[in-house]
Amino acid sequence: MRGCRIVAGCGLLLTLCLLVVCDSPGTGPSAPQEYVFYVSRQNQGMSGTYYRYNTQSGTLDTLVGAGGRSRIAAGLDGHTMFLGGASSAVTDDSMRLLEMLPFNGEGGTAVSPDGHLLALTGLGVTIVRAADYSTVWQDTSLQMAFQGAFSRDSKTFYCGLGGPDSNGVIIVTGLPSAPSYHIKRYANRVLNVIPSPDEQHWYLYCWVSVDVSRVLVYDVGADSIIRTISVSPGPGDMALTQDGDLLFFSNYGSPSALSPAPSYFYCYDTQRDIIDTISPIGFVNSGGEMIGRMVVKFLAVSDNDRYVVATGYGHAQIAVYDIRGERFRQCYQLDAGTEIGDVACKRSESVGGSR
Predict the structure, then answer these.
(1) Is residue 353 in a domain?
(2) DSSP string, 8-60
(3) 269 inside domain
(4) Distance between CA atoms of 338 and 61, rounded to whole angstroms?
């Protein structure tokens, strides 16, 4: 990582053991707004650990709160977090439990742009009101529903479907007053769906096999796939900038190979149809020796389209990518055995709102 330096990090709260600083936070009049990213851990018990990264201060805090849930989304009130698991939960922004929700959210969590709706996917699809958690729409027959996103007007919800006999995209329209749904069928399991801001294109992350995944660009008007991007091997995640110009996606390498292929971090320019493959992130010790490479899985973009936070699937790594500077700003290596999960972005209270 060009221009990086090692600084002491062992004393940072509970579990941070190494910090690589690639670019210092802005401090002048043009300094970026403050955004806060929350990262969950995998396979937690009743008490869970979470990490909170602040883009302005460049600090990573460790929080202890409601456990057993690896999917995460931020409410637009600036104070509420939604956690998806076998059962789901609502916490404050310090991860203290506020309420349990009897809905499966293992496949993913999503908050509508207007902040009024929460979608939980997994063993079915459930959409509730964020104010009182009353059910707007639910279908538990849609087994193996995966991550999705709302349209910009909050009236439609899209998510992936990957059951043993049914693959495709679930589209719930007419929200919140008159919801109905249909399924757009595909040959392969759809792990994630993100619509473009104008909903004229869908970006689909499809799992084909252990060693092959694909990102598809679907043109709604033409009713056809206009771009197929092979991502090999290992499925990952996607995140789209607010302006819809850049799609970030990842793969976490092949678990089946004797010498697993590396994980990569990609950026697709949706306007110019150009893909930039960013090399795997390398971690070095104080002596400059390589001690491991990041296995990139989950991604989230800040609302100001300035930062992407990437987490390592099943690995103790978090990286912050500066989109404008096209470099990794900070990279964290946590204690061995820490299994990092999903990531979500929340604006600070002074800014208001969240993704």
Answers:
(1) no
(2) --TTSTTTEEEEEESSPPP-STTPPPPEEEEEEESS--SEEEEEEEETTTTEE
(3) yes
(4) 15
128-153 per-position pLDDT tens digit: 999 999 999 999 999 899 999 999 99
Residue 174 CA, chain-centre distance (Å), reads 26
Q: What gap in Å lies between CA 37 and CA 28, rounded to an integer?
A: 22
Q: Which of 207, 196, 199 is nearest to 173 (CA)?
A: 199
Residue 238 belongs to a domain? yes
Tens of pLDDT, residue by residue over 26-44, are 443 444 467 899 988 765 5
Give the whole-angstrom CA distance, residue 138 versus residue 152: 21
Residue 52's contacts (CB-CB under 8 Å, 6 or more residues apart) are: 36, 37, 38, 39, 60, 61, 62, 63
Within a domain: 229? yes
Residue 332, beta-bridge partner list: 19, 318
Find where tokens 């973009």 sit. 301
Give me the amino acid identity at 234. G
Q: What is residue 3's DSSP assignment?
A: T
Q: Which two tokens mark 226?
A: 């206009």
Is the model's pTM score more than 0.70?
Answer: yes
How would you class 102 by CB atoms within 10 Å of its CB: exposed for 0-12, middle for 13-18, buried for 19 or more?
exposed
Domains in the chain, number: 1
Residue range of the domain that includes 95: 5-347
Of 172, 152, 149, 148, the closest CA to residue 160 belongs to: 148
Alpha-carbon gap, residue 274 to 222, rounded angstroms = 21
Q: Which residues have a Cβ under 8 Å from the Cβ of 73 and sit 6 or more positions away?
A: 81, 82, 84, 109, 110, 111, 118, 344
Q: Which CATH number fits the domain that encloses residue 177?
A: 2.130.10.10
Q: How far apart are CA 124 and CA 23, in angstroms?
A: 42
**Phi/psi zone of residue 305: left (φ > 0), alpha (ψ -120 to 50 degrees), beta?**
left
| Alpha-carbon span 224 to 201, nearest angstrom | 10
Pairwise CA distance, residues 54 & 6, whole Å = 19
CA dist., res. 215 & res. 194, Å (int): 11
